[in-house]
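Example S7 (structure tokens).
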């Protein structure tokens, strides 16, 4: 097979993977540099870029991305973040993996049995409908959750499996879970931290 044919075949395969992926939202505001990888193909995220299920999104340190989903939920990705939208179903089943950085979820939809889940390497947050922030630091293994409105169920993962012993953080409450900590602690949000977080994740 000639190099030309190989290149053409690769391009067709990448286009096919993207074509059959489901567009689930659109980037409405983009500052700085960010990209998504879908079907092995990397795409720079600009205003108007379609965001796909199964996409992996990465942002540079100075980036800000506001994504409006087709169901009117809003995701705000801050700088130096990495995440994967593993599932985003019309049946209202969502799984997002936050690998690094922080993400705001402003949910307009209601979910049954905590079917909207956000996972880090050490924890899982489940919600039915709320506004909250999640943050994960790979260097320390710390997970931060801040509930702005509603309630969020927060559970620890051991070898990727939830302990099924969740704590609940209500609006105005904050959790910082350190790796290997026995039990997450719920505390009131401190205003300086909240002001800074909201500025970086403004809707």
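Recovered sequence:
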């Amino acid at each position: 097979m000639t190099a030309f044919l190989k290149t053409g075949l690769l391009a067709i395969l990448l286009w096919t993977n993207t074509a059959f992926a489901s567009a689930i939202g659109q980037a409405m505001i983009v500052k700085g540099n960010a990209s998504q990888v879908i079907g092995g193909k990397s795409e720079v995220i600009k205003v108007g870029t379609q965001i796909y299920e199964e996409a992996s999104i990465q942002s540079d340190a100075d980036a800000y991305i506001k994504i409006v989903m087709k169901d009117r939920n809003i995701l705000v990705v801050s700088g130096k973040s990495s995440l994967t939208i593993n599932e985003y179903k019309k049946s209202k089943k969502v799984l997002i993996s936050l690998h690094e950085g922080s993400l705001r979820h402003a949910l307009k939809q209601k979910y049954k049995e905590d079917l909207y889940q956000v996972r880090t390497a050490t924890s899982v947050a489940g919600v039915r409908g709320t506004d909250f922030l999640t943050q994960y630091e790979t260097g320390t293994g710390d997970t931060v959750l801040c509930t702005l409105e509603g309630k969020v169920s927060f559970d620890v993962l051991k070898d990727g499996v939830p302990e099924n012993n969740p704590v609940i953080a209500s609006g105005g409450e904050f959790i910082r879970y350190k790796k290997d900590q026995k039990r997450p602690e719920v505390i009131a949000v401190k205003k300086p931290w909240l002001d800074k977080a909201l500025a970086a994740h403004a809707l």
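Notes on this example. The helical segments are 3-20, 191-200.
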